[in-house]
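Researcher: We're teaching a course module on how sequence relates to structure. For the next exercise, students receive a sequence and then see the predicted structure as tokens, so they can try to spot secondary structure elements on their own. Here is the exercise chain.
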Amino acid sequence: MNELDLIRGFYETLVAADFPHAGEVADDGARLQAVSVRGCHGNSKNLLFFSVTLNEGRVRAIRYDCQYCDVTLYVVAELVCRLLEEQPVTRLAELGDIEISALLGGESRKVLRQARVTLGLLRDALLAGRPPP
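Model: And here is the predicted structure for the students to work with:
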């Protein structure tokens, strides 16, 4: 399966499931800006925010708020949520291309590139224990 078909197929499952981890992030809640990418229609800025609930060092809940139009970022956001939910925060340091590709159902350079950036920024914010921006 080519990369575009892989992304499209995963995205279609998200649409059918009504984007299970998408949710409005409350303005007064903790938000982690994980991805800020330019290059969508009109070179607009694509933003991906996460809201993470931690308890005893584990990710108990994770939601994302999207402000972009690139379907690949929706795929990345859902993959990250599925990989992290109910996992210890320290698991972030162990996640890589193998886990992402396995969950996606194949390898996509675009998804892997964006997921690496997303996981790295989440890892830095959560493991450092610093408050989100």
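Model: If you want an answer key for the exercise: The beta strands are 32-38, 45-55, 58-67. Residues 109-128 form the longest helix (20 residues).
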